[in-house]
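Could you help me review a protein record that somebody else here produced? Here is the record exactly as it was handed to me:
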Amino acid sequence: MSDQAAHDPGPPPAWGTVGAAARELPPVAPVVEPLGADVCVIGLGASGLTAALHLADRGADVVAVDAHGIAAAAAGRNGGFLLAGLAHFHHDAVAAYGRDRAVALYRWTLDELERTLEWLPEPVARRVGSLRIAADAEERRDCRRMLAQLQADGLPAEDYDGPEGVGVLLPTDAAMDPRARCAVLAERAVAAGVRLHAPFRVAELRPGTVHGVEGEVRADRVIVAVDGGLDRVVPELAGRVDSVRLQMLATAPDHGVDLPRPVYRRWGYDYVQQLPTGEVLLGGFRDRGVDEVGAPPLPSAVVQDHLDTELRRLGVTAPVTHRWAARAGFTADKLPICAELRPGVFVIGGYSGHGNVIGTACGRLAADAALDGTPLRLPA
């Protein structure tokens, strides 16, 4: 492992800054005086930006804030998978939540995936499907159970045996550049009248006011759209959601390997995709870390060494150019937090590593609940 893992150089250039998907982030302004709005959205990742845009499209005056900026945390530093379904594989979701609820939630994410691909242009997003590949015989048996349940429930899935290995193909899934997606969302939000502000570190949520280290926002309704670090913003969630460090690396273009679609492997702990320009982006091995729960968002030597070994297994010979980490919120039941936890405070997060689709769907639910006064909850 290179010395680069001792610090965090930020997301790789492949994520929204070079190549065909290059897209500049819109500017954000500091908070220099108290601000007022109908709704304040906390978080400028994909879920928060989606909520802010949906609110503005419905006529609300919206201020959206973030401790660091647009796509500054996991929203702009993840694996770039757009996957239907929940954090549980579908057959496990059926066992955990019941068949009717698991199928309803899966179809909800399929709808959100379609909605995302309708407005997200190529090459920011590419519908190429995704693979779950078995690492051993036990996982192969589990892949068969997963496939059987998906097909029994009329959900898109196919048996797969190819160069990557044996497993399940999810043909409607997609790959994307997460930072570029947030740039597109932010552009649309600004055009709709949303005011974006950062840095704004939340110190306290009081009725009608969001107090920050840098200022305050007065709003009768607040949407907290934060994943990693959610329990810091909403302390009553301590014990219900854990912030878990996820680590990745990126290589220079390697045209000696061919990974045409995102791949999950080893029960979903490890994930890889290759960009059309040849860069390989690999993440995972959080189960091999010393303690990834509550760890700072910086690469660790232990996990990065495992990632280096996995690169060699994949046959990648291009040099590693970037190593980075981010924090994501995980819940014990692997269902996201999606609730009005205080009067007028609507909280979404805890996506357990699957926020790219579930998060934006929750953002839309939270916006409607904030404006309509209806209960905020996941589809039944």
